[in-house]
Specification:
heterodimer; A: mainly alpha; about 65% helix; elongated; B: about 500 residues; Sodium/glucose cotransporter
């Protein structure tokens, strides 16, 4: 009986999240400057690779 | 100990990342903040954390070592890894994220039953615990080679530092520091590569004063090596490249340490896109590290391939070399932190709370997550200091993740996937992997010529399919399944 209750508790923990308006956002204001910096570094890295080869 | 610019840069960097880890502390209020950063990580945090975790010792020092021995065919290592990350992003990440899982074993419970989840939890904890020890040894070796410290003390200092910053904020600590890691890796390693190719290669006796790959080919030829072979992208041969692809594809989609940042993503779209961005970020890494490994050979800087990258960086302009070493250090430290954190997450969430103490609340989980980070971190540091080399062989336990990947993939897309198949494929893969690794009772490798990861993947696939086809679905089996699975 106790085992079944435990299993039932475990099942309750797993649930799908509702799709909200937030789910549509990929990039927020915190991400933006860093993503631009990463893009810049990545492009510089590629340029350095081409120059190095 | 000689104070070099490389050492000063490394010490400043080390202090900075511990500070960043502790800075993340204010973000933590409950266990979900510790384990999955409150499921609020944005695209940047998730992608850089995945990429930084994946660029470990194997991806940096290891690829330079392979290039030193066998040439530039090593570039396939990161191409294959990128394919694995893209596969995870496009085909798996949103499933994990939509069901709000915290660990991979937990997802196996959702797909199968209690025994599969327990088996996966135990195997993951054992595998990651060993792997933490091995990676801490690699990190300590780098520190020892740069600082001149005793290896044992270097390992202990790194282990304690890792534990302290993870204790502060768990996944938030890793996410914060990963931003710094990726900036360092992304700028330091390509900068060092460019410097070596443009300024160091022309100085080699046999390069003819030419830089780039042309000068490197001249230098290799000058010391009696075959540059056409060593600089060919196919220098490793078809089977090794295939092994890289199998390792990437089978290893990544169920590797807790790499993918758990997707579980902490703010939404499932970010969980899916971030691994794809991470794949792009890691793609060129082995061109840089491999070329520097090959340079070490052409310049005859060392006879030990494991030291190829470190020695190259110590022998170039000290500032550029220091930034490069900081990049390698960042790659190693992010992997140690990620693996230690993955091990503690599964131990605290799956084994300690859900399995052994299911009635306990969130506060208890938060406390025990920190305690397990402490126990695993400190024990791994002491393990790395004291345990014999035989421990390196325990790495094979980590190969079990290919069995996990097969369980997850079949559970998602094969209606006949049976819970017993998941359980037995993990158990038999562990037994078969042990026999393969330790040659019990025969030397399997001499017969099959497979890497341990390929052997484990193949074994789990065969066991899974056979057990699924021959297992009967009883009312008992169905009663143990989560309700959503019954709708399949």
């Amino acid at each position: 009986m106790k085992k079944k209750e435990e299993q039932s508790n475990l099942l309750n923990e797993l649930s799908t999240s509702e799709l909200s308006r937030e789910d549509m956002f990929l990039i927020d204001q915190t991400d933006k400057p860093f993503l631009i910096v990463y893009l810049f570094i990545f492009i510089v890295g590629i340029i350095l690779t081409v120059l190095g080869i | 100990m000689v104070i070099t610019p490389q050492l000063i840069i490394l010490v400043i960097y080390f202090i900075l990342i511990i500070f960043l880890g502790i800075l993340a502390m204010k973000k933590v209020k409950g266990s979900e903040d510790l384990l999955v950063a409150g499921r609020s990580l944005g695209l940047m945090y998730v992608s850089v954390s995945i990429a930084a975790e994946y660029m470990g010792g194997l991806g940096t020092i290891g690829t330079a070592e392979v290039a030193f021995n066998q040439g530039m065919g090593v570039i396939w290592y990161h191409i294959a890894s990128s394919c694995g990350l893209m596969l995870f992003g496009f085909a798996f990440a949103h499933y994990y994220r939509k069901y709000n899982v915290i660990t991979v074993p937990e997802y196996l419970y959702y797909l199968y039953d209690v025994k599969s989840w327990k088996a996966a939890s135990i195997l993951n904890v054992i595998g990651y615990w060993f792997f933490t020890i091995i990676q801490m040894t690699a990190l300590g070796s780098l520190i020892a080679s740069v600082t001149g410290f005793d290896l044992r003390w270097s390992v202990l200092i790194c282990g304690v530092a890792m534990t302290v910053y993870l204790l502060a904020a768990g996944m938030w600590s890793v996410a914060f520091t990963s931003v710094a890691f990726m900036l360092t890796i992304g700028s330091g390693i390509p900068l060092a590569f460019w410097w070596v190719m443009k300024h160091e290669v022309p100085l080699l006796t046999n390069s003819g004063g030419v830089g780039g790959f042309a000068g490197l080919a001249n230098a290799l030829s000058g010391i009696g090596l075959n540059p056409d072979h060593l600089m060919s992208p196919f220098s490793l041969g078809f089977m090794v490249i295939l092994g890289y692809f199998l390792g990437g594809v089978l290893g990544i989609p169920a590797a807790q340490a790499t993918i758990n940042y997707s579980f902490g993503a703010r939404n499932w779209k970010i969980a899916r896109l971030a691994p794809v961005l991470a794949a792009i970020l890691i793609l060129p890494l082995s061109i840089w590290t491999g070329s520097m490994g090959l340079y070490a050979r052409a310049a005859e800087l060392t006879t030990n391939p494991k030291l190829a990258l470190g020695i190259t960086l110590m022998n170039i302009n000290p500032i550029i070399g220091g930034i490069g070493i900081a990049g390698i250090f960042a790659a190693l430290i992010s992997t140690v932190a990620g693996i230690l954190f993955a091990c503690a997450s599964i131990m605290a969430k799956d084994v300690w709370q859900r399995w052994l103490h299911p009635e306990k609340d969130d506060k208890y989980l938060a406390l025990w997550t920190r305690l397990w980070i402490l126990i695993i971190g400190i024990s791994s540091a002491f393990g790395a200091m004291t345990l014999p080399k035989i421990l390196q062989q325990a790495y094979f336990v980590y190969s079990i993740r290919s069995a996990l990947m097969i369980c997850v993939a079949f559970g998602l897309w094969w209606k006949a996937a049976h819970p017993d198949a998941a359980f037995w494929s993990m158990i038999i893969t562990l037994i078969g992997g042990t026999m393969y690794q330790f040659n019990i009772p025969i030397n399997f490798e001499s017969i099959f010529h497979l890497h341990i990861a390929e052997w484990c993947g193949l074994l789990s696939l065969i066991v899974f399919v056979i057990v699924s086809l021959f297992s009967k679905w009883t009312s008992q089996t169905a009663s143990e399944l989560p309700p959503m699975i019954l709708k399949r």
